[in-house]
Every structure is written in structure tokens, then in C-alpha cells.
Amino acid sequence: MDMNCGRGGGATGGEAMRTAEERRRVRLAYGRGGLEIEVPADAEVLEPRLHPGLADEAAVLREAMRRPLSSPPLRELVPTGASVGVSVCDVTRPFPARRVLPVLLDELDAAGAGAITVFIATGTHRACSAAELEAMLGAEVLARVSVVQHDAFDETRHRDLGRVPGSTAPARLEAAFLDQAVRLTTGFIEPHFFAGFSGGPKMVAPGLAQLETVLELHSAARIGDPRASWGVTRGNPVHDAIREVAGRAGIAFNLDVTLNRDQAITAVFAGDPSASHAAGCEHALRTAMVQVREPYDVVVTTNSGYPLDQNLYQTIKGISAAAQIVRSRGVIVAASECSDGMPAHGRYGELLHGARGPADFLDRLSRAGTAVHDQWQVQVQAQIQLRARVLVHTAGVTPDDLRAAWLEPVEDVTECLRELAVEGRRIAVLPLGPQTIPYVGEAALTPGAPSAG
Predict the structure, then answer these.
(1) pLDDT value at position 452?
(2) Are 195 and 203 contacting, i.e. CB atoms less than 8 angstroms apart?
């Protein structure tokens, strides 16, 4: 652990530490196994409202597809022999495809569908390995469908659908997906730090969009807008553009799920793309939103464990969740396994190493004439680090690489908190990271309202 973890506290020794009797244990979502830490007894642990998993997931999935929201049943939307394209999350998301897709495929078979192709909506992420595909989809699904992995960097695979709203950038989507007679989206709805929520239209854009389209959807101006925040889908310049571009793909049917901390399905929202996603967002918002009375001096967070905490790039989401409730010049401590490193693919690490720090990066970004792949993640990180220290505990990124990424390495979270727990400091813990939307003060519980954070 860096020995300056608690710098600026103003107290040392017994005066700064809590006794063993004044502490309690909290389990953080970290990698596949979790991480148990000790926190001061008066630390506030903030978690989503508990929702048990469905007793019979398959039955609820079938019912949702047969009695959908604002739509005919799925079977009635698929002409006999029609080709079907299904957009599915990549390996960085916990969408339970191997449990959802068999039920969906049975409904499509009952409708007399023709060839079915699963499109892995990678956005600008790397392609999934063969082992990852089998783990995600299962052997049964792989035997029943063709699989196409999206590649945002191959312009020839995409088709122009006009311009991204509010810009001159092209709106290009995966041509093979658009060529399917019936197009479906499946997804997992969770809070998103600048798009409001995941799932729904994000399974088309950026999921199946070409790089130039993704760059505009994640432009510095859109990301920098205060409405581009957790839980906001209307009036959010990121989500509004995503919804418009995805709408041009002519999605016939959407199926979203929400999950609990054990990745069990808690609810299913299926039917008209707009109505089903809106209903899912409303449910997720009421589950995840947690009000606090004032900011905290120290906030411990995670990136919700595997697969969401596979790399440091994704971890910025959990850090952003903590940033909603940390005071100015406060401290964020993030625990994220990062089994995939920075990662090696993409330009996240390159952009971090190319600037002297957060202020320098944001200054360069303000003067840049063009967008750069992965700049959005660095932009969010830099904005947070202008107002708070960020410390990271991880097994997948070396201390030197963390420092090069402007972050402070922490070997032991419990010991770090002992240093930080100076008398009078308020401490909060987000064991599930971005599955919780903490906010200070009053906020309207509607995805159309600006975030209070």
C-alpha cells in the first residue's frame, strides 16, 4: 500500500485509528470471488433495494414474450421462414444470454423463423474469444445459431443511415444486422454513468455502430453536458442521440432484464423497444437510487465484480458512482480486479500516458479538433480527479501502471481505510459500485429527470 493513503488527515496513530470493536466487515463485489474488508462501524453502506431472483426465469421470459408491452406477441412479428438477427451483449456485461436465449429461440422456432444470427454488440471493445463465446452463450445456443461479432473498425461492414442528430457525423450500423428480415435486441438494464441506462437502444448504438458514429455519440461535448449522467434518458444528449440512431434500425422487439447482486434475473421487460426499455429503466431506477443527506469525505466503491470489473477502463463507471457523493477534495477508494489489465486493446492507456495529468488532458481535449477512440472514459476520469483523490486496489494492474494512469495504488483496502478514518470523517461504501445510484438531496424518480448527483 502507498504509505500516503491517508495524507491530509491531520491526525496520526491512535487518534486517527478506530479500534477493532468499532469496526465491521463488508463484502465487496470484486472479481468472481468478492473481497471482504473492515470498515468503521459508523460507515454507511449503500446498496440497491434487494430484489430476489425469479423462481422460474424461463416461465417469466416466455410470458413476457407472449404478453409484451405495447406490442403483439413475438411469434406474431416473425413471418414464416424469415431471417432473424438478435443483438446480444459482449463479455464485459453480465447479461445471462445462456439462460435467456434458449427461451427466445424456442419462441422463434414456434413462429417458424428461418436462419437465426446472434450479433455480439461489442461497440468498440475487442472480439470475444471462442471460450468466452461458449461461456456466454452455451453450447446449446451455439449449435442453433450463427454468430457474428461486431467490428466497429471495419467501415466496409456498415451501412449509412443518415447523420447522428446534432452533428455532421455519419450514423453507420452493422449492415448484416440490418439485412435481417426481423431484428431483435436483448440486454441488461443497469445505471450508466453518461448514457443514463444500459440495454435497449444501446444494443444497436454504440453496440453495432461504426467507429465514427461511436465517437460522435461519445463526443466531449455530449459527455461534458451535465444531463449526460446516471439515470437520465430524456434530455440527455448521449441517450437522445443513441435512441434516435437505434430507431432507424427498425427493431421489431426488445427484451431487457434486470439482475440482482447474484446475477439472477429479477424482472423481464419485453415488447415495443421504446416502451419496454422505459419500463425497465423505471424499475432499475427505483431499485438502484439511494438518497444521502450530504457528501462524504471518503467513498469506497467497486465495479460490481466480474464481468464488469475486467479492466481499469470499465472501472471508471464505479469511480463515477462514488463521485456523485464524495465531497470536493475528498477521497475515492475503488476495488476492481481488472483481470484484463488496462486493457491492452483500445486507446485508454495511450491517452492517459500522453497527458501530464487530468487538467492537462482536459485542456488538450478542449483544443482538439477531432474525437479519439476511448477519450470519453479518460474525460470522465479526469473530471472526477480534478475534485477528488482516486485510489485503486487491483490485482490486474501494477502499481507503476496505476500511477502512470494518474491513480494511487492501494495494496490493502482495510489498512487504507484505517489511515483515512480520521475522527469526524464521513465514510460511505458502495459494495456493488455502479449498480447503486447515490445522490445528494432531492431527486425526481424518473429517467426523464436530471440527476441530482
Answers:
(1) 35
(2) no
